[in-house]
Amino acid sequence: MDLVGSQEVKKVVNSVLDVIRRQIVEGEITEIDAPQIIKMIKEKCESEQRPSLQSVINGTGVVLHTNLGRSLLSPEIKEYLNRIMFSYSNLEYDLQAKKRGLRYHHVEKILRELTGAEDVLVVNNNAAAVMLVLDTLVPNKEVIVSRGELVEIGGSFRVPEIITKGGGSLHEVGTTNKTHLKDYQDAINENTGAILKVHTSNYRIVGFTEKPDPVELQKLAHAAGVPMINDLGSGLFIDLSKYGLPKEPLIQEAVATSDLVTFSGDKLLGGPQAGIIAGKRSLIEKIKHNQLLRALRVDKMTLAALEATLLLYRNPAQAARKIPTLRMITMSFDELKERANDLAAKLESIPGLSVQMGSGESQVGGGSFPGYRIPTALVYLTLPTSCSPTKFEQLLRTGEPPIVARLEHDQLIFDVRTLQGGDVTKIYHRISSLMK
Ligand SMILES: *Cc1c(COP(=O)(O)O)cnc(C)c1O
């Protein structure tokens, strides 16, 4: 109760008394139970004090669940973050030179090493990175984009609008399924500002398709004296095809064939929300002088989490194990089955529940690996007929801790891929207390 001020307590007391008065008027209660009223006041004070942002158990199997916060940071970096968050740091101070330093400096070395780029810059998110790049390099110029790559990302971020917002104009080329090098070539004129390639990260065009070799496209851009910009969206450093996933473009590959590459810190990279721009030093230098950068700059929490996550990539095998996003995507079916067994065994011990195990498919989510499903292990719960599945799902979702699961054909389904350490026990306790 210490955390709540007296004005707040007064408000809570009045609201609880209002409820009781109404209940008396409506004949719902006939006696005043003082200890019960005090308990209600206490509980209300506590619940008002609880932050709105809560930790949630993700039983959906969607790894990069945008609604549930996308990437989880690696527990490996916890201690380091704790140290940086709660103390002064050399954020903008060069300790060696005893003079002002740059916040961007901290992630430069590791990012250059991992991407192979001459220079890098980190901003608030990838949407900001794309906007900043276009705003700096192509105001009042034409940006050439293939019709197959006019992407809309969630939250109304659309490539055509972003280009015009930056003061540029869109020059569409090719068709939805096929765009040739010649289409780009024919579009180049004295007002061309850049060629923009956008990774179709959240959809796939399959069948009769074609797009030019990125090396050729970059050559074309250079012959025209304009930069080749590549919005990758998701930042993948490790080839996941060795884990059976489809081949997705790697950051290193994109950097080798583009002048500037932009990608997110919290999609496949598995770090905090951030936007990373990697590429030619001369272009990044221009971007660093854009006034907008100040508005899009990242906080020390982001920089600390990003640097620590990136350092895990020094050892790629370690990164696949220690970065939760990569670990969940590459988890073996045997491990998933073992986890499902564990959850099913616990839930079976609850009277009245019927539990089955099965296999199904998880999605990576977050607009990556579109259309691709990873085989996974599921636990199906069938409730007693006296229990409404819809109501049960709602109670699970709105309780403490909130548990988000799938509800299909009156069965609750847990995809164990996205469960974290300790979640199995928490799910068991919540469900057994709901069944009482
Ligand atoms: C996700 C994505 C973005 C936006 O990135 P945020 O980090 O969510 O701002 C931009 N472009 C592409 C191609 C994307 O996939």
Descriptive overview:
It is built from 17 helices and 17 strands. Helix 3 (78-85) packs antiparallel against helix 12, helix 13 packs across helix 14 (324-330) and helix 15 (333-348) runs parallel beside helix 17. It has three domains: 6-49, no CATH class; 57-66 and 327-435, Aspartate Aminotransferase, domain 1; 75-322, Aspartate Aminotransferase, domain 2 (3-Layer(aba) Sandwich). The model has no long low-confidence stretch (mean pLDDT 94). It has a seven-stranded mixed beta sheet, with helices on both faces. Strands 13-14-17-16 form a four-stranded antiparallel beta sheet, covered by helices on one side. The protein is of the alpha/beta class. It holds the Pfam family SelA. It catalyses: L-seryl-tRNA(Sec) + selenophosphate + H(+) = L-selenocysteinyl-tRNA(Sec) + phosphate. InterPro entries: PyrdxlP-dep_Trfase, PyrdxlP-dep_Trfase_major, SelA-like, SelA_trans.
